[in-house]
Amino acid sequence: MSSPKCRNGHEFLKAKRSRTIGLRLAATTAIVGLSSLALSSLEPAFAQERTSRVSNARTFNIPSQPLASALNAFGRQSGLQVTLAAATSRGVRSSPVNGTLEPQQALAQLLAGTGISYQISGGTAVIGSTATTGDNGAATVAGATALAPISVFGGGGSLGAGEIEITAEELERKNPANIADVFAGEPGISVGSSLPMSQKVYVHGIEETNLAVTIDGSRQNNKVFHHSGTNLIDPGLLKAVGVDAGVAPADAGPGALGGAIAYETKDARDLLDGDGFGGFATTSYNFNSDTVTTGLSAYGIQDGLEFLGYFSFGNGNDFTAGNGSGVEGTSTDILSGLGKLAYEFDSGDRVEISHERVHDDAPRPFRANTGFIDGRPPWEPRVRDYTLDRQNTVFTYTDSTPEGWWDPKLVLAYSKSELEVPIFLPSGGGLPSYNDTGTTESFNGKFENKFAFDIGNIVAGVDFYDDEAELEDPFEPGTEKARNFGVYAQARIEPWDRTRLSFGGRGDTQKFTGTTGEEWNNSGLSGNISGEYDLIEDFLIAKAGYSHVWAGIPLAENFIMNPNWDYGDGPEPVTADNYNIGLEANYDDFTIEGSIFQTNLDDARSPRYAVTRGIEAHDVRSRGFEIGGGYTWGDGSFNVKYANIDVEIDGNPADSDLGTYLAAPAGQIITLQAIHAFTDWGVTVGADAEIALDYDDVAEGSKPFEGYQVFNAFVEYTPPTRPNLTFRADLKNIFDETYADRATYGQEFGTVTPLYEPGRSFILTAKATF
User: Fold this and answer.
1) 594-607 pLDDT tens trace
2) CA distance 313 to 295
């Protein structure tokens, strides 16, 4: 709270400016969307042509080998994404596959004799658990066993310690309205703030700016304002999210101090099985805030050309907290869009360009992550105008039919976040108000190749980023820059039965430029190793991992930049060490797992506005443990998880102010999730809960955190005779709890009214797919 942009309050003035930015946003997605609609008029979407390029015959050459390696080779040679729906690969060898085959035939042949089920849909091959063979419609070839497709709720293959995967199916089930909903059910991941534009993600208490965060492979450098979020994302765009909590691989990108988060957006291939056209329309109404959100999409695949256009807009009023009071500055005025074009040549070379954009334009609390702070100057209004715009453009090249050791990937990307807020000087000063604009941007990319072996693969490549943070202020403008070049390699192998290893390293060299124009060059090495071993085959797995990360010097936040900072000998590069160890037990349909972890950040830069504080840094330590269990049956599942996370800054309990851009208090969190599908009726019901226990390990002079209990439920109906229609009703915060998420700023300070979460909220959603 030391930024002069925070200290200087001012009378609220909202002169509604033109919608130029919003129109630009619409234009960036309309081109692809209109192209899709125009082409779809040539062929009705409901009469999709099923002569899929994905299902065209391809040449396969997959020797008999451990199943995990064979499926990796199958994914490369078929062009399909391969997902394990259960821990099926341990100790299993594949059958050899040779010749020109349809992917479905090749997969059936590869799995021949294993008794393992599979399903191919929407460009994804889902490999299931051991199943009874029989004539259930699975494709067969000579010598192959007939395999029954299965549906898995809450399942997922065995993941390494600290790895979390949120699949497309889970996202559909959660029906997320914001990024906090995306991570619901993961007690080790907290999302502070109830406003999408000011939400920040904390993994084991470590703030996301200390993680390697990417969207479709594009680096995100979005440290704009400590009262706003760093990655405003429309969850309707997402098809999957992957998290490496703590230990991250070298190919996750530079700066993975506390791990990595990878967001992936939807492709036409995820929505169509083959050549054809389609679309969907979805709308929801939140009765708490009278908010309407509408999404429209059109997409298609035709003779190697793929296109997708998506546009969403939401508008609504302030919401009401559990105490019955309206929370000022929480209205909705958001636009988002995604446009993608891709083409796959007959040679298998595939190029794709995408543009994604989110624009939030609504009055927010004066500090957008805080309800109110007592004792502020009288001229400081309760709300002021925030305009946040984030965009991401990515070009990707891959080869969907790699041969031998040639399996390349090229990514070139540009990401940008821009925030404009009004600045008012103290009343009586005689100076007019003005707007400040903070902008962070990154031009980044990588080129890598996957070298496949019988026992696994090695990914090796180079990457770079050119980041800039700038404050446009008429009195004290400031700019910091950082350029980085990295070389990396990561091996993922199964050297022996019952053993899976991942290890790698990277070297980075960085040039950092301060607001004064001074420059510093630094270089460093990073390394990681993690693995799994089946202590008892098909029952008990041991997991462990370690990483040392060198991340160079992070850029400062825009709104606290001081052009007169005294950098002295220069900021110290930030380093981190991560440790984790865990066990996972599987018996029939039961799973029990647990892990302990620790992350140490050294010299984590956290500057403040004062001249002497531009290189301020702190040491951060997060440690704790997680345990969880679940049971899966044919049409549903139940899961319970518990996390106990202790975070310290410079040896003292973390607080949310000192922890800005570093870490936040966490404590003990319990989550529960249950879901069941009544398949014959087309009805799915589910419920979940988050329980935060009281937490009194706080900094001296701070008040303890109060616990809270939040319960949610939903029912979804897809008419069996109209499978393209879905109706859903969500009831959030059933018992009207008054609370703020544990990671929300300021709860330990007596002068702060935190930004509360919505009270009881009834949400209706309808979706039609064409």
Assistant:
1) 999 999 999 999 99
2) 7
Residue 756 exposure: Cα atoms within 13 Å on the Cβ side: 22
Q: Per-residue pLDDT tens for 448-474?
A: 999 988 888 999 999 999 999 999 999
Could you tell me how far CA 5 lies from the centroid of its own chain? Answer: 30
Helix (H) or strand (E) holding 5: helix 4-7
Residue 132 confidence class, pLDDT cut points 50, 70, 90: very low
Looking at residue 555, the DSSP 8-state letter turns out to be P
pTM, two decimals, is 0.84
What separation in angstroms does the CA of 566 have from each of 475, 603, 612?
18, 17, 6
Give the tokens for residue 196.
Answer: 């999408």
Distance CA 194, CA 754 (A): 10
Q: Which residue has the tokens 């606290």?
A: 560
DSSP 324-365: S-B-TT--EEEEEEEEEEEEE-TTSEEEEEEEEEEEEEEEEE
Residue corresponding to tokens 């703590």 = 246
Q: Is residue 48 over pLDDT 50?
A: no
* Domain annotation for the chain: domains and CATH numbers: 4-30+263-769 (2.40.170.20), 45-84+86-130 (3.55.50.30)
| Torsion angle in degrees (nearest 10) through CA of 84, 86, 87, 89 | -50
pLDDT at 616 over 80: yes
Task: Yes or no: say if 311 and 319 are a contact pair by the CB < 8 Å rule.
Answer: no
